[in-house]
Design brief:
The protein is α/β, with parallel strands linked by helices. Helix content is 49%, strand content 15%. The protein is built from 16 helices and 17 strands. The protein has helices at residues 18-36, 52-60, 65-82, 96-111, 165-173, 182-194, 223-237, 253-266, 298-316, 328-358, 372-386, 390-411, 413-419, 421-441, 447-456, 467-473; strands at 2-6, 10-11, 40-48, 89-92, 115-125, 130-132, 150-159, 178-180, 200-201, 203-204, 212-213, 216-221, 245-249, 274-278, 281-283, 286-287, 324-326. The protein binds 5'-O-[(L-methionyl)-sulphamoyl]adenosine.
Length: 497
Amino acid sequence: MKFFVTTPIYYVNNHPHIGSAYSTLAADTLARFHRQIGDQVLFLTGTDEHGAKIAEAAAKVKQSPQTFVDTIADDYRSLWNKLDISYDRFIRTTEKVHVEVVRDFLNRLKRAGYVYPGQYSGLYCRGCESFKRNDELIDGKCPDHGTVPETVTEDTYFFKLSIFKDRLIKIIANDQLAIKPEVRKNEVLSFLENNDLEDLSISRQSVGWGIPLPWDESHTIYVWVDALINYYTAGKKTGFWPPTQQILAKDILRFHAVIWPAMLLAINEELPKNLFVHGYITSEGKKMSKSIGNVVFPEEVAKKYSVDGLRYYLFNAFTFGEDGDFSDRLLNQTYNAALSNELGNLVQRVIVMVDKYYDGLVPAPSSAHNAALVTEIWQKWQQSLSSYNINVAFESTWQLVKLANQRIDETRPWGLVKEDQEQLKNVLYELLETLRHLSLMLTPLLPDAAGRIRRSLNLEPVYQQTDKEHFRSIQWGELRSNTRVSLSPEVLFPRHQ
Ligand code: MSP
């Protein structure tokens, strides 16, 4: 099976913050999960580099747009490397290959009869890079950016978006383009049902920093049209088209659920299968912004709490799909409770006991173990990751962590040393085998911890597997007796004050 997952491509007018990291970490989790269960994966991310907003940001620091975008695109790439994001393709909209695909796409739209020249007059918000209707403004300002949009009147080319209204309603209602969660699907449907769709202005004469229209080079292509096509550039040439899963936040839902599918319908291309729309991460209750000074940078969080600490927090502190507040206090608490105490201690206690009682060699169990519960947890894990419920996958994995800690407290292996050697072997084997299962369940969720637990068990980290290898790996009893196990030199999750 092919699995093609995308993140939005990020604007390079600012340095990446935790909001950009959220979509990317979610896509990373899904990509790792699909590689693990045997799928062929294309994980795409990248940067959105054209348009008035970027040109303005470059001018502010007295740089040419190209020099400016090169620097910030590098920032993104280096952040993703620091966060160990397993992307397969990093696309930049200034790449030659993308520019060619965009020009070709626009020619196809025109040839198909969906483009006509005209004049547009409207209120343009640079922050959104889109025209706004009067009823979308609050006190004359864009509600997302708090700025007064500029009045623009110019010649343009239009895309006949309006004629796609009924087809869009149908494909969204019947889940040909499935939008999740349900509340977002209903939001798009009610927008489409209650408004006339206007044709879309797809070119700008007054914006120089963009891709020239192939048939009229005095216009550049509207930045959103250019940006949306990035998915097509990366997916079509590699044989991965269409996207299985597109991840985005609610701010850019209409672009992805209205304009984007209409563009694809117009050139007779297959539509993406699923859009997953998540909420915003706020900081101290407010939208993150430079001017408020509450921007959280993911590399700083990861430096203190590790990348896995950041992942755990982001997918546990709030439900995937809803808004959530980033709080340092909560992060600290969650990290210490779940990662240091529950998971970290579990690994430490089990390996130390094996070291002490069996010289670090996995003992042979003398009786078969009933693994029905583990099988059940595996089912929940697989189901939740297949349906993009990352927080539920964490919950089921933690069910196993908790069970293992309970087993230690109940069986008191240190007491069994003198009383019942056979039982001690059985309990320790069961705990070690549980660690192996945990390392596999954690592979897409907390990849670094998963790899370290596996190294402690003398096993290679998992990345790409076949479905057969995956199926075999989740059976009970795969850990070989007499394997040497050892603690890694650094504590898995050191406690923080
Ligand atoms: N360049 C456009 C997207 C084009 S995709 C063809 C854009 N870029 S953006 O950098 O402003 O934001 C992109 C995405 O970053 C958002 O949709 C969202 O996925 C993520 N986030 C940015 N800030 C966020 C939060 N504060 N919280 C959660 N995610 C947010 O829009």
